[in-house]
């Protein structure tokens, strides 16, 4: 991998976080039609899976060839990571304040850093540790500090969301050693989509679609939702993982709540609190620290 390709890696991860940060705009719109969070997740995963499959067919049909021993890896990516973390996250939202659920979700960089040390023997440099502390602190401030409504069961579910979210970086890095980013995303979303059908009541989704004032318009909004909140960010993130360490990528992606906060202010006239402003500064500081040029031989 040449230096120019490596330079694009962090940018691709940040781009993914920016697109993920727009998810609230689409979720709020679809909820007006009566869709549950799990149903929105299923729609998002299904349309994204169709796109990724078509992309592989167009670029290289041979990309569908995988070894039988790789199936558990893709099951882990699709079910244990993407579908599991989404279900845990939306369950956590129902069990506790949204801010608390968001804070628990963004324990993911901590999980990734710990797993990267164990699995990939990554070095825990002072720069990474400082960036991790700043990023997590920023997420806490952006989400809002909430101490109420948290049970032991809710804590486990929320931490499960963070772990599942973080596992994509770990399992994705392993999968990219054997397959292209297009193959990885296609199989991940195909498996996650099929898994989501068992918990989302697909017939209810179809009935709500047909009952909408403009079914065709809503159908195309489904496609747009999948493209903006799943296809572009997951493909960008997976491409970035080719040159960016899993632990560093997880920290860079914490720009997502920053973007969500800014969009909330612009699109929904939400107030910019002092807490959110401080959180934005902390997250941006973490991103800058991770991308500062280091001395030769430094591990970042």
Give your account of this protein's structure.
It contains 14 helices and no strands. It has one domain. The model has no long low-confidence stretch (mean pLDDT 86). Helix 5 runs antiparallel to helix 7 and helix 6 crosses helix 8. 76% of the residues lie in helices and 0% in strands. With 300 residues, the chain is mainly α.
Order of helices and strands: HHHHHHHHHHHHHH
Largest beta-sheet details: none
Number of strands: 0
Task: Give the CA-CA distance, first to last residue.
Answer: 17 Å
A few lines on this structure:
The chain is mostly helical and 300 residues long. It is built from 14 helices and no strands.
Write the SSE topology.
Elements: H1 3-20, H2 23-31, H3 37-59, H4 71-95, H5 98-105, H6 108-119, H7 126-143, H8 152-175, H9 181-197, H10 202-211, H11 215-240, H12 246-252, H13 255-268, H14 274-291
Helix pairs in contact: 1-11, 1-13, 3-9, 3-11, 4-5, 4-8, 4-9, 5-7, 5-8, 6-8, 6-12, 7-12, 7-13, 7-14, 8-12, 9-11
Descriptive keywords:
14 helices; 300 residues; 0% strand; globular; mainly alpha
